[in-house]
Design a protein that fits this description.
Shape: globular
Distance between the termini: 33 Å
Number of helices: 14
Order of helices and strands: HHHHHHHHHHHHHH
Radius of gyration: 19 Å
Largest sheet: none
Length: 260
């Protein structure tokens, strides 16, 4: 990156932050594109590293529907992991209550787009490791896995029996399977923590993989499993206030007024 780019980064970061907070996501994306054209992709990564994580979350949440974003492709692993702490603050309260699966599917699209938006295996591994090293990241993965609990348990059983030899091709054909396998391969601890979030009674035993799942959504599961809605609210409660975003305190809030 050129010396000229270094001088311009603070101004670009300020511009992007102001545009995102003003709700002008398309203009913020254009600012990223202009920075990439003038200074290269590294400049965009540097901007994403320097802007507050709640701003990154707000920007990237606007592209959860599968629309392409430079931020999705270039966000540094640590910056993305930090932004996941705030993504629940972008969710509509009514939708969380009335259609939690829709939010979970949007979150899956977001996570899948970031992780598999690159062919670089090392970057993919770093993204998964950084995200799953946080409490909120593990809750986010659990939300995604709650869309296919039976398949996730089957995968857990395969991972227990096959270990490092597990591949997405030898397991479930569910869309979530490649992400689950990639997480297990990147971080054994992160995979375990996500499983414990979804299945608080999970133990390293293939027995749970044989659990029966009813087709009746109103029927209680045979063992303790957190619902998608419950997990959404768990992540919402983990959202820090922007006053604490600097890391001066670990106290968490419900995230009200987070983007003010």
């Amino acid at each position: 990156m050129s010396e000229n780019a270094d001088k311009n980064l603070p101004a670009i970061s300020k511009q992007v932050t102001e545009l995102v907070l003003a709700g002008s996501l398309s203009h913020a994306e254009q600012a990223f594109a202009d920075a990439a054209e003038a200074h290269g992709d590294l400049a965009v990564a540097e901007v994403l590293q320097s802007i507050p994580p709640h701003v990154t979350a707000l920007h990237m949440a606007g592209f959860d529907g599968g629309k392409l974003s430079l931020a999705t492709l270039l966000v540094p692993p640590k910056a993305w992991a930090d932004s996941l702490a705030y993504i629940a603050a972008t969710w509509n309260e009514d939708l969380m209550e009335d259609d939690p699966e829709r939010i979970a599917e949007s979150l899956f699209t977001h996570i899948h787009g970031v992780v598999f938006g690159t062919e670089d295996e090392e970057r993919r591994r770093e993204l998964l490791q950084e995200a799953s090293a946080t409490d909120w990241g593990c809750t986010a993965f659990a939300i995604v896995f709650s869309l296919a609990p039976k398949e996730v348990l089957e995968l857990a059983g395969e991972i227990i029996s096959k270990g490092q030899y597990i591949t997405a091709q030898t397991s479930s054909d569910n869309d979530i399977a490649p992400l689950a396998v990639a997480l297990a391969q990147a971080s054994e601890d992160g995979w375990d923590r996500a499983l414990f979030e979804l299945f608080p009674e999970f133990r390293h035993s293939a027995d749970l993989a044989d659990a029966e799942f009813s087709d009746d959504p109103d029927e209680e599961p045979a063992f303790l499993q957190r619902s998608t809605k419950e997990l959404l609210h768990r992540l919402r409660k983990q959202v820090p206030s922007t006053r604490n975003a600097s890391g001066r305190t670990g106290r968490r809030s419900l995230g009200t007024g987070i983007f003010s």
